[in-house]
Design goal:
This protein has 136 residues and is mainly alpha-helical. The chain is built from five helices and no strands.
Amino acid sequence: MIEEAFSCGTRRDRRAQRRIWTWSLLWALSLIAVTLAIRRWHLSSGLILAGIASNALLGLGTLLAYRRFLRETDELRRKIELDALALAFGVGVIGGMTYWLLTLAEAVSTASFGFVFAAMILVYPAGVLVGLRRYS
């Protein structure tokens, strides 16, 4: 069902979705590599900054691929995507602010803030699946 939901639409939509998945995978792998490089290896600051810049460029590529998809897809799919993005953004803002307050209260460490991003990343596809199911 998940594969079917994320590969629905026109041939152009499916091609655009594959492009987004490719950019996203490269971005995620880059994030893992740069994180490991920063934490485990003693690289020069120049190499680390180059890795961070490369990661940002891959993120920009992902964003532009997604933007292109949204411009080319139909109105219903744009609505589904917008609803899912709004949900993920809301989870990120509410989760981020809550986490920040917990950090100020010294109830959690700042090192675990990545969980807020992980929640956003997981909520978005769930929102898309719910929307696709609702409107199919």
